[in-house]
Amino acid sequence: MSKRVVFINDFRVYNKRYRNLTMKHFREIGYEVMNLGLFDTPFRTILSALFERHIVSSNMKSNLFLLLFFWRKNVLIINGLGKFKYKKIFRLILIVLFFLNWRTKILFQNYLDYRYFKIYAKNKKYELIYGSGASKRIISSCDNTFVVCRPGKFNYVKEDIYNASRSLNRRFNLVGMELSNEYVNGVGYVPQSKIFAFGSVLFVPSGYGEGIPHVLVDAIFSDCKVLITKQQILSYGLSNMYNIIKIYSNKYLLCKFKDSAKSLVSVTQVNKKILNSLLDSE
Predict the structure, then answer these.
(1) Which residues, including other chains, have CB under 8 Å from residue 160's CB and lie 6 or more apart?
(2) Which end of the chain lies in a sparser environment, N or C, as judged by fewer CB atoms within 10 Å?
């Protein structure tokens, strides 16, 4: 059995950012790990797609690229459909590609996408995972509410952030951007380990079609209070896994998640599913 696993993403830095714990786990259990980016190592990525036995891909562009090699067995992690989530033609294209790639194991990070493709693109090789594995974070002792967003996604979620700020009559600390106005106080970019230093309540905005946010996974695992809507909780597949502390404006739930949710988002559980999928694709 080949003991090398190739992790492919749009860019190598995305694997270092979001799959680092999983790559570390594979190294610890004896695998050689190769990190490739479709756009920064294209030649090696093509060769790997043709000849490598164990491949894990986890972003939309790299996933679409690997789906072209329909005769290969790969493991694809679908983070979410992003801005294409309401595009019927795009979903139809994916259904066709998934059908052709019947040998490939597909792991969904978005519960609604998982349910949709489970119904319309029947395949026994679909599974649901909760993010890329949670990390335990130190939560701030201050009573501030914070929201995490990077500039490229802000336009998709800003109305939800502003509406929540107005409803709660509360200004949010905006982690990841320097923008400041009557609704948010921008604190700029900070390292992952410092994100939870700007409040004890995480607000989770809606409006972008990716899977369960990594910051929410960390918040659940770290026992941080979360401000979220019931619809979002349903969309992330976390029903009956939370305790409500307070309800604001008959819409926003201030809650903490139960141990059952913490178990699902743990890096141990996520790595176990990826490893089992990899072994199943042999």
Answers:
(1) 205, 206, 207
(2) N
The domains of the chain, with CATH numbers, are 4-133+266-280 (3.40.50), 145-265 (3.40.50)
Contact (CB, 8 A) for 98 and 123: yes
For the record, the structure tokens of 276 come out as 């089992």
Name the helix (H) or strand (E) containing 250: none
Distances (CA, A) of 83 to 113, 128, 152: 13, 21, 12
Indicate the residue type of 156.
Y
CB 6 within 8 A of CB 54: yes
- 190 vs 246: CA distance, rounded Å: 29
Provide the token pair at 26: 């594979």
Residue 223, both tokens: 């026992």
* Bridge partners (DSSP) listed for residue 78: 108
Q: Do 265 and 131 form a contact (C-beta atoms < 8 A)?
A: yes
What is the per-residue pLDDT for 1?
47
- Separation in Å, CA 123 to CA 62, 93, 117: 21, 16, 8
One-letter amino acid identity for 95? I
Reading the block at residue 84, the tokens are 């294409």
Sheet of strand 225-229: strand arrangement: 184-188, 172-175, 145-148, 201-203, 225-229, 252-257, 242-248
Using alpha carbons only, how large is the chain's radius of gyration in Å?
A: 19
What is the mean pLDDT for each group of 10 consecutive residues in the chain (282 residues)? Answer: 87 92 93 97 96 94 96 92 83 92 92 88 80 88 94 91 95 96 95 92 83 90 95 89 93 94 90 89 64
Separation of alpha carbons 165 and 149, rounded Å: 15
Contact 17, 37 (CB under 8 A): no
